[in-house]
Amino acid sequence: MTGPEAYLRLQQAATHAGAASSDYDLNPSTVLPAGRKLRPASVLVAVQDAAGGAQVILTKRSSRLQHHPGQIAFAGGKQDAGDADAVAAALREAREEIGLTPDKVEVLGTLPSHETVTGFAVTPVLGFVRDRFDAKPEAGEVDEVFTVPLAHVIDPARFVIQSRRWAGQQRRYFTVPYGPYYIWGATARILRGLADRMVP
Length: 200
Hints:
Layout: H1 3-15, E1 21-22, E2 39-48, E3 55-61, E4 72-73, E5 75-78, H2 86-98, E6 105-110, E7 114-115, E8 120-129, E9 142-149, H3 150-153, E10 160-166, E11 169-175, H4 185-197
């Protein structure tokens, strides 16, 4: 998919109405506690215009982290008190984690919130990167910054539902593998939501 085509389709995806998603979507028998409080967070779903076609920028979290070590993720994190909103938080985290400065990102909009099993309400922020940037993985947080073709992760046929034991129960989740990268969990669920909004 070319950069200009991706740009237009991402713009359209940002305007599509849709329900919020969660890590529990494929596990309808899960009973969530009443009155639970979710912490606000956001991620930058950054799409880069590249010579070989539009690419999604992803990270591999450090294997030394206490939470989600080695997992594939978007740049992002919890919203801090100094962040004006979810968009500001996503842009700040992208600058800190991968060296992508806000001036290189055109924010196209947001997707509905995604609830994680770790208690966050994550706002996915769609951003388009026209200029090349030199990725700078944050030491101790990010082991690798890499890209995946946008066409790959918005093709519903590429997604597979798998399961594993978690917290004493069998949990089902989306995966969308690419080469050596096992993309799963919240990252795959957010991409699956994007794929639904970008079906031609």
